[in-house]
Amino acid sequence: MSGSKYFKVPIPKGYRIFFDEMEVAGVSFRKSDVVKAFLGKEVALAIEAEPRNKFDKNALKVIAFKKGFFRKKKLHLGYIPKEIASVIADRDLNHDLLPRPKELWVGDRGGMKIVIDILGLKDEYNKLNNA
Question: Which of 91, 85, 94 is nearest to 130 (CA)?
């Protein structure tokens, strides 16, 4: 049976939405990490640059942190879409970006999708339009 889980994560003070309702790329290759990341009530996401990615020098990974017995576990969930990662790199916006989970969809045939907003500092927003 398919279904969706929706999240209502508040926007932190000093941040605003830079890119809204974007699907994380490559989730289907990391299903077990996605399931682990979204078990429970809270999920903490982050964006991490991957400059040595052989397919995209601007690659930005979406990662989740889960509490382990002795330390936090880092789970790679997928990537920011290539076009958006390019805009972020071109405008030097990859500082202080926060992915905010919006929806996790799991299909009855094994399909999976994560939808996020990317938040950035309000003071940096003008870089989107001025480059």
Answer: 91
Three-state DSSP state, 16: strand
Q: Return d(Cα 88, Cα 92) in angstroms, integer.
A: 6
CA-based end-to-end distance of the chain: 45
Cα gap 43→66, rounded to integer Å: 7
Q: What is the pLDDT of residues 21-77, one digit of tens each?
A: 999 999 988 888 888 888 776 788 999 999 999 999 999 999 998 876 677 789 999
Cβ-Cβ contacts under 8 Å for 121 (sequence gap 6 or more): 14, 15, 96
Give one DSSP letter per residue of 59-122, joined into a string.
-EEEEEEEE-SSSEEEEEEEE--HHHHHHHHHTT--SS-EEEEEEEEE-TTS-EEEEEEEEEEG
Entry field: residues in the chain = 131
Reference 64, options 72, 56, 53; nearest CA is 72
Question: In the 8-state DSSP scheme, what is residue 12?
Answer: P
CB-neighbour burial class of residue 42 (10 A; exposed 0-12, middle 13-18, buried 19+): exposed
